[in-house]
Each structure stands twice: as C-alpha cells, then as structure tokens.
What we know:
Number of helices: 12
CATH architecture of the largest domain: 3-Layer(aba) Sandwich
Number of strands: 19
Strand content: 25-35%
Largest sheet: 6 strands, parallel
Strand order of the largest sheet: 11-10-9-12-8-13
CATH topology of the largest domain: Rossmann fold
Shape: globular
Number of domains: 2
Amino acid sequence: MMQWREGVVEQVRDRWPGAVEYAVRLAGNGGTVRALAYTALVGEPEVGDRVLLNASALLRGLGTGGLAFVVATPDRLPADPPPQDGHIVKARYTPQQQMFLAVDEQDSPHHATLTSGPAVEVELAGMPVVVADLHSALPAVLAGVRAERPGAVVAYVMTDGGALPIAFSRTVAALREAGWLAGTVTVGQAYGGDHEAVTLHSGLLAARHVLEADVVVVTQGPGNVGTGTRWGYTGVAAGEALNAAHTLHGRGVAALRVSDADPRPRHRGISHHSTTAYGRVALVPADVPVASSGDEFGALVLGQARELAAGAAGALTVREVPVDGLDAALRGAPVRLSTMGRGLDEDHAAFLHSAAAGRWAARLLSE
C-alpha cells in the first residue's frame, strides 16, 4: 500500500533537468522531509504550495529512492502541455502513466530510419555494446572509453529494471552537461530520455542510427532490486541485453560487477549477479574485460572470470585490459563515483573493472 502524506513546500533544495528537490514541512508536526517532483508529471511546485506526497520509500528507510515524491499540487494544477505526436504509453495503467512519441512508432520522424537502410541491412554493424548490472557503473565505463578514445560518441540506453524516470539520475544529467554522453534512449517502461523506444532492441538501433553512437552503454536506472537469491534481482536483464546486442550484430562487452569491499561474500570478487547474468542468461558470444592490475585481488578476479567463461552458456572470452591511466580517468569524472554507498577509494576495484570494460569497447573501434 502507498503511504500518503500532505505538506507545504518550504524550500527549493536542488534542481536538474526534469526534477526539482524540495524541503517539505509535513502536516501535523511531522517534521521536514526531502521530496522530489518530476516536472513533466506535476509541474514545479512553489514555496508555500500544498503538496501531496508518496512517502512509502522514505518511511521504510530505503537507500536509493529514500525520499518522498510529489504526487500532485492540488491547489495549483499544472497547465496541459501543448499538443504533440505520439501514442506510446509508459508507466502503463498506473495513475501517472504518460504518452510519448517513441522513436520506433509510425509517427516518428525516425521510423523510416529504423525500418529501412542500414538499420535493417547491417543493424548495429559490430558496434560495441557495454552492458552493466548497476547504474553506478555508467560514469566509470565512460571514463574508460574516454581514456582510450576521447572523441568517441557514446549513448546511454536505460532499461526499466530500476528507476523508470531518467530524471531521477543526477549522474545522467551531469554526464550530459559535461559532454560525456551524446544522448540517451529510455526503453520499455523507462521514460524521459532524449528518445523513447518500445524495446531494448529498437533502443539499441536508435542509439546507433539516430544518435550515431560509436559505443552504447546499457544499464538499468538507479535503484537495483535484489533479494539475495540467484534469480531475484533486476540486474539479471544484463544477460538479456547481451543477447539483444548479438541478435542485432553488435559486439557485446560484459562489464563485471566486482568488489573488494562489499561485506557480503556473494558480492566479493566477481558478484554472483554477474556470474548468473553472463554465465546463465546470456546465450551468445561476448567479451569479458578484466582489469589487469597485477595485484592479488586482480589475480583472484582473473581466475574467477576464466572460471565463469569456462562454464558459461554462451561463448565468453576473457580480455585482460591494462589499467594505466584509468585511475586518473576515474578521478576526472564530472560526477561523484558511488556504488552501494561506497566511493572510489572505498571500492576501487568496482570502478576500475567498469572502466576496463569501457577501455576495451573503445579499442574495438579500431578493429
């Protein structure tokens, strides 16, 4: 059940494209809470406005998403948007469903691009597609790409396993502002990218033939869901993303989820999430980059990667990637690197292996 709260906007705390964060004083001496408004859904509340909130995640003390969300400003509803094309509904059959012009629907100016010419004849034409489990891998992958090929055009395809609105990600907003991303495509039920797509397959095609990307990164949005079981986590879709890339004649690059700091044994070294997604779900050839750090932990991960490849359902190929310059590239990222609450120096291996995947993808551009 959703837990409702009512409050009054006291302060604008922060804003970025598509979202505004507020301090909201709850009714009935409930204190002040952080609340996020998606401007495409509810407009921009102003200081003094009464707002209705969904406080469920906040009251449960969740990490990602642990804040209230503005559902409506009942005393001052936003004006209707201007008429626009498009009839693809996302967040379907929820009270906040929205209608978009998808890149692959008939009314789209890009429909012909995705139904004829190169998009059909060569599809992805060997384009590297880096797949990662966690959203936090995105800036690290981009750092690796840029360390090897600074001029590469990179697009982000966001799947719907985590947050549905891309506006939730301050990381994406900052990467776009810094020029690290050429564009974004939100697929499935995810929404708010530069382009919308009905499926991951058409999203990949849009990244290649509409955004003209050299490299594509595929991850879910912020808010990975996991249950501690082999199959009960949203990152399992990383294996399906490799299948999609291969189906479209792309070059799949499996970014490993690695940690030398996670207290949970199932996530130390190569996470069981990676071994399941890449070893059991992916049924196609893909490259598995491993950061060649030369230390004891690096040797552990390399051994685990070789074991993963030997028993995988698909034809995985382990690629040892040199790490020279990657630490500096990571430290030069325009966003704060954080995964599961740990920063770069707290879980260096996690970001280093994501950067290695980006570097390997950039090297494929020379083949």
